[in-house]
Design the sequence.
């Protein structure tokens, strides 16, 4: 395993560092205190890390066996256009998650949890940097509609929560539970995407994946371990910790995580072009089984906490019994355990978009009845959000037949920030894209 | 169940193995210690997630081996692989799963530039000593030395 560190040209490197002064204010603190929280770990490096010695041969798809492409010019226009969209989306998610984490970082339960999330943020910054390297190190102008590398960087660095490419990165966090649930659920999708892209026919992309994946392993643990500990606190009767709070976070993030795989019926082009080695549904199925196991393990931690004298086998038996009977066991209720929602629950993209399906697969005929159900199963901060209001508007129209599902998907607003990269430099204009690609100004935010 | 008919897989440890590792440890030691293993798994995942290995039989984790490459300790500058913790469910011993995990770890250590693999063990524990011997470990000229923190014969006087 050999990794080559690459720095962006000074002005772009500085742009990323400057971006962090707005969206990751604790970055210098993390670097200063690195040795306190991560003693003897390798120092953090804001750079692109390219794996050396990876395969030169395309492993999947139509061009399997051919030499991997090293330059966008070696791809067809359609391939290059498709890959560019993947890279930009990946970059958007990396920077987007930092903005989300920053909102509730200071509400961490303890210093260690906070330090873990700060390290996650720093590594996401590096991952975003890695994607910028892919955009800037080669010429994409023939497939970018005339948008230059620097302009693409500006566009990505100017995105904020609400206008990122993927919905999961447009939701504000409501508490620190969102920080850890996000790491456990959304970063796990990231792991799947990066793993699939390890085979990418575009070699610089493939070479970017191994180190990102290594870092992602820590991110997943930084979500799962605090969730396990939170369940232990809930089991011990801590009045500030409840399984309901965790379940509400599961309900918030799991549907968005599924949508990050793309429409269940899609992904053929990714495999055909050799960019990924699985189609969307195939990867999504594996993901669902993985998070099912994660929740089962957290439930086991909770049950062992509630009944310290139980053996692991007894705890397993209690979980199985409650799942089957939906009853109670010595005061422990079925609803005290975490449940993985039905894959059609609260979806607004993909083949289940705007279906009104409950956590356990139950159906709702009426939009408002379904919204009341969601309100009971999501946290209060999120219920009051603009994201949920937009969803409710679209759902009512779809159910009333005044909007098709396809138009409903498009109707979920994409806010696009127009203006300079730096939020401290000039005011920006927000526009809402309509279904036909037209734009109307909805708000102007001054600096 | 004959292991020969079972599907065996050796792969790097992940955060979702914590529950299985806690169970293996509990089966061996009788102690339920989730906090200990959460802390240890996090340590190894953040240091080098490709190094530590898990053994799966029919999709169930039945063994683990933790370690990493380190250098600059005890005056030894060259990188060395360290095998630091391992556990195998008693029902799955004697089937070379420990060796398979060690082989995977050894390959990773070589990729990381290590020439030597080291460990510390209580050689009075026959099972552990036999296992390490079978893997090829032999006494090193580096010796683990120890001394009590409190000098012998001196009782600590309680403070007023």
Sequence:
């Amino acid at each position: 395993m050999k990794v080559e560190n690459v720095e962006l040209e000074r002005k772009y490197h500085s742009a990323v560092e400057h971006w962090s002064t707005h969206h990751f204010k604790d970055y210098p603190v993390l670097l200063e205190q690195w040795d306190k929280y991560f003693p003897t770990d390798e120092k953090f490096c804001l750079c692109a890390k390219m794996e050396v010695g990876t395969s030169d041969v395309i492993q999947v798809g139509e061009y399997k066996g051919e030499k991997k492409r090293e330059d966008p010019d070696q791809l067809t226009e359609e391939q290059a256009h498709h890959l560019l969209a993947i890279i930009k989306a990946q970059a958007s998610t990396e920077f987007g998650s930092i903005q989300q984490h920053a909102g509730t970082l200071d509400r961490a339960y303890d210093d260690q949890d906070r330090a873990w999330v700060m390290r996650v943020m720093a590594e996401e910054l590096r991952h975003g940097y890695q994607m910028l390297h892919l955009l800037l190190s080669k010429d994409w102008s023939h497939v970018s509609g005339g948008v230059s590398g620097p302009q693409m960087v500006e566009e990505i660095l100017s995105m904020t929560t609400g206008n990122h490419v993927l919905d999961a990165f447009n939701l504000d966090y409501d508490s620190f539970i969102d920080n850890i649930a996000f790491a456990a659920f959304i970063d796990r999708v990231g792991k799947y995407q990066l793993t699939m892209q390890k085979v990418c026919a575009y070699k610089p992309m493939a070479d970017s994946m191994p180190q990102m994946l290594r870092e992602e392993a820590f991110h997943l643990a930084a979500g799962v371990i605090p969730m396990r500990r939170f369940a232990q606190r809930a089991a011990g009767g801590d009045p500030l910790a409840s399984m309901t709070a965790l379940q509400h976070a599961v309900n918030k993030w799991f549907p968005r995580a599924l949508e990050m795989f793309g429409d269940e019926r899609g992904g053929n082009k990714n495999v055909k072009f050799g960019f990924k080695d699985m189609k969307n549904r195939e990867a999504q199925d594996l993901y669902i089984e993985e998070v099912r196991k994660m929740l089962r393990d957290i439930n086991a931690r909770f049950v062992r906490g509630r009944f310290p004298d139980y053996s692991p086998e007894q705890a397993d038996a209690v979980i199985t019994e409650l799942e089957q009977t939906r009853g109670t066991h010595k005061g422990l209720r079925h609803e005290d355990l975490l449940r993985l929602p039905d894959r059609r629950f609260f979806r607004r993209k993909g083949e289940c978009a705007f279906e009104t399906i409950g956590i356990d697969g139950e159906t709702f005929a009426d939009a408002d009845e379904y919204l009341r159900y969601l309100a009971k199963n999501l946290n209060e901060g999120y219920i009051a959000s603009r994201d949920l209001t937009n969803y409710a508007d679209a759902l009512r129209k779809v159910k009333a037949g005044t909007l098709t599902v396809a138009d409903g998907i498009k109707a979920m607003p994409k806010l696009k920030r127009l203006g300079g990269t730096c939020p401290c430099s000039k005011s920006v204009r927000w526009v809402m894209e309509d279904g036909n690609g037209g734009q109307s100004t909805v708000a102007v935010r001054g600096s | 169940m004959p292991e020969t008919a079972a599907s065996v897989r050796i792969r790097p440890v992940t955060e979702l193995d914590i529950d299985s590792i806690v169970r293996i440890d509990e089966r061996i030691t009788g102690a339920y210690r989730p906090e200990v293993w959460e802390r240890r798994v996090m340590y190894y995942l953040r240091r080098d997630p490709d190094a530590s290995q898990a053994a799966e039989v029919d999709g169930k984790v039945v063994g683990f081996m933790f370690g990493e490459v380190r250098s600059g300790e005890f005056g030894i500058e060259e990188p060395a692989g360290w095998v630091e913790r391992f556990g195998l469910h008693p029902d799955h011993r004697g089937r070379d799963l420990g060796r398979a995990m060690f082989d995977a770890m050894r390959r990773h250590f070589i990729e990381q530039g290590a020439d030597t693999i080291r460990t510390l063990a209580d050689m009075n524990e026959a099972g552990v000593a036999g296992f390490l011997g079978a893997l090829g470990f032999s006494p090193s000229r580096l010796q683990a030395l120890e001394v009590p923190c409190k000098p012998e014969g001196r009782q600590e006087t309680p403070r007023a």
The mean pLDDT of chain B is 92. The CA atoms of residues 11 and 59 of chain B lie 11 Å apart.
